[in-house]
């Protein structure tokens, strides 16, 4: 199955007069990068959460945040650690006697870890927090899968369009070869000079061979077949798809440089445009 790297999941439950909110955001990234933001008193859960994410997500940038709010308006819910503040102030004044760094910002003091204490927040069990996280993570995986399925449909549609352009190129190539041969002969006949028919055929064959694109078309067809197989049989396909699409783009550029017929050039440009559009979609695939 194809998974998108772009998804968002938010889940909220109420426990012990607290609102517990998990928020997971996933965006595209070359590798797996996990950022976890937890309240200070449960920072020790980071490693467990990271392992759970790695079991179901293999690529992308994951931003994981836990919010815990008190529902009841309790004036004593937030307490100040006066002992810690006094210690910090003494340390700041001691430093200030040596280095004058200006006015003390008390807002910054409140941001110091442990200065603000949230009462009764430790009543929430770790098992509840982790099970709630797993539920949110499952939702994120579902969203990634749903979007991945839609991306697969878009990519396959564009691949069919490329196959159609390849078919047109094969047809136009046959017509072009006949017309080009006839055009050269008419030009030589118009000059009204004697020539060796066998030598003329050899020269025409050499000219046509320099503009022959059958090998490039065969290689593109092989790449397209491989892309279909990958989309239907594998999961971690993003980097692999991108590499194959680079090869398709390279073959398309060769066709454009060889072609001297307007219809062939137009089809080659269309293949390049479709390939680039697919590459843009592939950037979001795991």
Topology (elements, then pairings):
Elements: E1 7-15, E2 18-27, E3 32-37, H1 46-56, E4 60-70, E5 78-80, H2 82-98, H3 106-110, E6 116-118, H4 126-191, H5 197-210, H6 214-233, H7 238-258, H8 262-282
Parallel strand pairs: 3-4
Antiparallel strand pairs: 1-2, 2-4, 5-6
Helix pairs in contact: 1-4, 4-6, 4-8, 6-7, 7-8
Describe what you observe in this structure:
The chain has a 4-stranded mixed sheet, covered by helices on one side. β1 and β2 form a beta hairpin. It contains 8 helices and 6 strands, in the order βββαββααβααααα. The protein is α+β, with helices and mostly antiparallel strands and 286 residues long. It has 3 domains: 90 residues, Ribosomal Protein S5, domain 2 (2-Layer Sandwich); 33 residues, no CATH class; 133 residues, Butyryl-CoA Dehydrogenase, subunit A, domain 3 (Up-down Bundle).
Brief digest:
By secondary structure, the chain is of the alpha+beta class. The protein has 3 domains: 7-74 and 124-145, Ribosomal Protein S5, domain 2; 78-110, no CATH class; 150-282, Butyryl-CoA Dehydrogenase, subunit A, domain 3. It is 61% helix and 15% strand.
CATH class of the largest domain: Mainly Alpha
End-to-end Cα distance: 10 Å
Question: Roughly what is the average pLDDT, rounded to an integer?
Answer: 85
From the alpha carbons, calculate the radius of gyration and give it in angstroms. Answer: 33 Å
Q: What share of residues is helical?
A: 55-70%
What percent strand?
5-15%
Say what oligomer this is.
Answer: single chain
């Amino acid at each position: 199955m194809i998974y998108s790297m772009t998804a968002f999941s938010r889940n909220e439950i109420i426990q012990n007069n607290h609102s517990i909110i998990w928020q997971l955001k996933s965006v595209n990234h070359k590798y797996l990068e996990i950022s976890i933001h937890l309240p200070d008193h449960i920072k020790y859960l980071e490693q467990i959460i990271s392992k759970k994410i790695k079991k179901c997500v293999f690529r992308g940038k994951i931003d994981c945040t836990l919010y815990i709010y008190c529902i009841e308006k309790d004036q004593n819910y937030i307490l100040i650690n006066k002992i810690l503040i006094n210690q910090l102030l003494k340390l700041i004044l001691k430093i200030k006697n040596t280095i004058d760094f200006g006015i003390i910002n008390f807002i910054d003091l409140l941001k110091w870890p442990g200065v603000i204490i949230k009462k009764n927040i430790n009543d929430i069990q770790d098992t509840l927090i982790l099970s709630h996280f797993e539920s949110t993570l499952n939702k994120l995986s579902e969203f990634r899968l749903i979007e991945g399925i839609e991306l697969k449909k878009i990519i396959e549609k564009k691949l069919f369009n490329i196959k159609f352009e390849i078919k047109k190129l094969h047809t136009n190539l046959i017509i072009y070869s006949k017309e080009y041969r006839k055009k050269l002969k008419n030009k030589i006949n118009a000059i009204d000079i004697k020539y060796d028919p066998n030598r003329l055929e050899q020269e025409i064959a050499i000219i046509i061979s320099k503009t022959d694109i059958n090998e490039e078309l065969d290689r593109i067809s092989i790449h397209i077949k491989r892309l279909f197989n990958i989309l239907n049989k594998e999961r971690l396909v993003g980097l692999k798809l991108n590499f194959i699409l680079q090869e398709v783009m390279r073959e398309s550029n060769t066709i454009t440089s060889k072609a001297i017929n307007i219809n062939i050039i137009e089809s080659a440009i269309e293949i390049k445009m479709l390939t680039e559009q697919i590459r843009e979609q592939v950037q979001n695939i795991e």
